[in-house]
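Morning F.,

Quick status update on the modeling queue. The single chain you submitted on Monday has been processed. Sequence for confirmation:
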Amino acid sequence: MRTSAETAAETGAETDGGPPPDLELLVHGVGGTTPQEMLTDPRTVLVTGDETAGIYRRIEDADAEDRPQDYRESPVREAYCWSNLTSGNGARALWLLLLPFMVANLAHWMRPAADRRERTVRGYGLLVRLIALSLTVLLLAGACEVALDLVAWQCAGSHSCGGNRSWLGFMSPRDHGWWSQPGRRLALASLVPTALGGLLWYLSNRTWSAYESQPPLRRPVDESDPASGNRAALCLPGFWYGRRIVARLRAAHTAACFLTVAAGLTMATAAHDREPGGSALLDAIGWLLLALLGTGGVLVVYVVCRRGRSETKLDDELDRVTTTALPGAALGLLALAMLYAGWSRPGWTSQGRLPGDSTFGVLALIQGTLVVALAGCALALHRAAPAGRTPLRGLAGPAVAMLACGLGAVLCGGVAQRVADWLDGDATPGMDSGAPMDGPPVLLSWQAAVIPTVLLVVVLVALFFAVRVWRVRRRLVRTVPDGYPGERPDSVRTRKIAGVIARAGLTDSAPGIVGPVALATLLLGAAAVVGAWASHRVPGRAADGAPPVIEAAAQTAQALGSWLMGLAFLLLVTWARRAYRSPSARRTIGILWDVGTFWPRAAHPFAPPCYAERAVPDLTWRMETWTRRHGGRLVISGHSQGSVLAAAAVWQVDRRTRGRVALLTYGSPLERLYGRWFPAYFGTAELCSLHDEVRCWRNLWRYTDPIGGPIRLPDGTGPEVDHDGLKDPLAYGRTPDHPLPAPILGHADYQADPTFDRERAGLLARLPEQHPAAHKSSGPPSHKSSGRSSG
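Structure tokens below.
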């Protein structure tokens, strides 16, 4: 809706002779909240936006610009609510099933800080995109393993498995029906993974149109300027608009999906045609299809490698040939492969596993090699521009990429193991001599066998940090009462406060968890590949040569790992289903997405959509238009993840607007999480740049907060931004002001602290006061005119 003040501003009319009102733009954090809670008023009205993301005011403040005299003592308050971008729709919880894609996309943004124009930076992005492509192929290979191998090839081809299931009876060889031939069964089953690839394309295209297609303000950047390569990346006008790269990657990954299914069909059929007595014509067609599929794979890799993100300008152009012809040609090859597999081949029977058992081993080897190469790039970049608080010496990105590969293997292996156990009834596939099925590929069994070891590493790391928390808590018990002089000591209260502070510090220990788990995943994954290769070379060696104790331990580890892989997948599906039905659980899912989907889809187009590509332009447009129309002072006030959105929006506005904007952050992970894990975008140099460009900035934090923390700017500017750690709880015991025990707030309710109002008023006082005619001037105000104070 449009206020009368906005109409008056457009016509040049003034409402009175006084200065315009001030504005506080509130941005909530993870998990979301309602406009009523943010504005502490049950009566709110939507000012601009929609139900997905919009700006609200109290009803009595809707026409505040018409009554500036009523807002001399306090600013007008607006609430930007963006929670429906991540947790509003219950069906969106199903994005949990694509968690590996989101984690791989995060690895792209975790590169160490360096000049964006360096060749090593481009190599880093290229390797992450290739890892992301391998995850798409792995997902489709897992779908093909279930649909083509386990169902159509093994179960439907077995009298004891397919014959006892009515829904597979028409494929049973004993009925000699049209679908009983293995090739035709495979062609029919290939519709399932093909539909999965089409669904991924549809979701990626639909979510881009719904959430990420909002263009930001257009501001040209001179790429020939030597300083442009070292500007803060979030200042660049095209940072939050990746239309062209997402469209190219979506086309390449969709083509990879179809080519993977076509390869599974063609390899199995061509292997039969190469046997003695096969048709020479069909054998030639098979070789031709394999050559075409290889060419298609090379083209997909070329498209993924050819071009990265363009951030210095809005990249509106689309490569129509690539985005349309590449997936179309791949779908055509898949149709030819289905026709080729469906050709009549009397006497062809399915035995053992589907040819192509080594596919998962090749994928694991490729992923491991790419992760090692990515680690080399990350180390080189970190040495070129070392940062003291960068976790794992710059190896955070490769570690997270390795975890993404591990998650992908667990999902694919878990589905395959559970489907095999369901299809073979009481037998154990691949282990019982009387089992009707051979079960999944050998590598998945070896990967299942190493999962208990990975979990043991996780447990040991967790125990180590639990002991550390206990020791820190013991040390804090002696110092907590010093913060409340004159209070009577209470051992229970003291231990509770000390425990909260000690647990909040675990956030800074996250690299000590991610690093060992990622290293264990890499080493044990390599051991699984070697073990699977040795099993193919010397079948049955474990059973014949190993002592009984070792053999029993190996079988126990494999069985336990198989159940754990299946359990992990079932828990993920159950969590997604619960989130679909329960609003509270859906809000928890939203918290995960708030952190994981802040970044654009630069590496994987099938990752969950980036909400910041809608939220940052929203905030930027609001700050620009309001300050231009009304000329008032503006404080953008962000809590938790909202502080990251607020900082990103301030980076995007022009110099004139930044001169009228103050930044207030509280419970902010800007340095503690983003500055450490994403140093190229929120590192010390970037945060110092933000401090220099914005008129004034204050940051509030608590020792009990597990997410937020100080900004820690160097060169003596830290105290200007960071307030001292806020007292939490506000009162140790019962006082006249707090007759009941004060709660330990931790990450919540910063506005309940009296310091909040004082700091907001201090920021407004440091902004230059505007007069009715001031906003008509087009020139930017002097940035240093009012000076900087310690607040």
